[in-house]
Amino acid sequence: MDIYKQIIILLITIVCVIIVVIMAIIKSKNKPALDVTKIGLKVGEYIPEIDYKDINDTSRKIEENFLNDSRILIIMDSNCKECMKLMQGLEIVNSEYLKLVKFVFTETEISRHKVSNYNFNKNAIFIDAKNITNDLKVNAFPFYYVININGEIVSKGTLSAYNLIEFITENELSPKLNSQLA
User: Fold this and answer.
1) C-beta separation of 34 from 109 below 8 A
2) By Cβ atoms counted within 10 A, which residue in 8, 15, 73, 178 is the most buried?
């Protein structure tokens, strides 16, 4: 085979590889978004009775202790990179905006140690990972539930450091939500 035919075959091979790479990129960008309707408890369901521990390692029950004064549960895992970004973003949020928020973490010494260094640590609770997965039905982090005073879920979804401020502002100050939560 002469050199020109080899060059042509090589160029055709390169073009084919480039086409395959471009198709792979296009396919990966067209992945469906995370369907939050399939994650977590359904809107209209109630938060189940779950035991948890606070930052001081005191055992409590969800219904007895914070459904009356908390309306938003943000569920995080301290080993999750997006959760860590979210936690860092929470450092700049005025604590007044967080008064109705409980931050749910998997119960580990590492989680407790990491959370103890943040300004929202009094709002942190720790639940066994199995309860988060089995009872709260959460397997994607960070995830949130907005609940009314009866413990009924009125909204849910995923959260990121990029939409954190907007989320907290909308859910703490929205007249529409406040009327639903009453």
Assistant:
1) no
2) 73
Q: Where are the domains of the chain?
A: 1-31, 36-181
SS3 content of the chain, % helix, strand, coil (to 5): 45, 20, 35
Q: Where are the beta strands (DSSP E) in the chain?
A: 51-54, 59-61, 72-76, 101-106, 124-127, 143-147, 153-158
Give the fold, CATH level 3, of 36-181. Glutaredoxin (3.40.30)
Angstrom distance (rounded) from CA 102 to CA 119: 13
What CA–CA distance (Å, rounded) separates 59 from 33?
Answer: 37
**C-beta atoms surrounding 29 within 10 Å:** 7
> Which residues neighbour 143 within 8 Å (Cβ) at sequence distance 6 or greater?
36, 39, 40, 74, 75, 156, 157, 158, 159
| Per-residue model confidence as pLDDT tens for the chain (182 residues) | 688 888 888 889 999 899 988 888 777 665 545 565 678 899 999 888 888 888 888 888 876 665 556 678 899 988 888 988 888 888 887 777 777 888 899 888 788 888 888 888 888 889 998 989 899 999 889 999 988 878 889 889 888 888 877 787 777 644 444 444 44
